[in-house]
Amino acid sequence: MKLNIFCEEVEFPQLKKSLILDICKKISNDENVIFSDINIIFCSDDYLLNINKEYLQHDYYTDIITFDYKNKKSVSSDIFISLDRVLENAQSISVEFEFELQRIIIHGLLHLSGYEDDTIEKRKNMSIREDYFLAKLI
What's the CA dihedral at 70, 16, 9, 105 to 10 degrees? Predict the structure, then answer.
């Protein structure tokens, strides 16, 4: 698996690339999915808002947008994460920024593994899987 990390309009967060690779490997093994090229782009709210408007025709802030370039054998992706949203989420639920960032990365990778969150039931199921993988990191 090839993991690339980029920053747009933000500084690189205090998170080790090895931890992100570990998250990818755990999800790949448990969910039986092959990640090939994963690009994680940490960005600002405004940067992600522009992507949300341009590609999804949504005019609102979000914490993550995952573009899935799946083929028959493996999954490639661009995962855009707003660090502004992650910080606000962390503060609103009283968790550490790094913990919330890990959760958001897991969330994006679960989308690539076939999980959806467009209904209450699916969101609940995805949240259970997020908690499962967060516990594996401790």
Answer: 40
Alpha-carbon distance 49 to 112, whole Å?
21
Asked if residues 48 and 87 have their Cβ atoms less than 8 Å apart, the reply is: no
> Per-residue DSSP letters for 109-133?
HHHHTT---SSHHHHHHHHHHHHHH
How many Å apart are CA 113 and CA 138, to the nearest integer?
Answer: 22
* Domains of the chain as residue ranges with CATH: 2-137 (3.40.390.30)
**Cβ contact 5:42 at 8 Å:** yes
Give the residues across from 75 on adjacent strands: 35
Which amino acid, 5?
I
> Which residue is associated with the tokens 């933000």?
10
Which tens digits make up the pLDDT trace of 29-78? Answer: 999 999 999 999 999 999 999 999 999 999 999 999 999 998 888 999 99
Q: Is the pTM of this model over 0.85?
A: yes
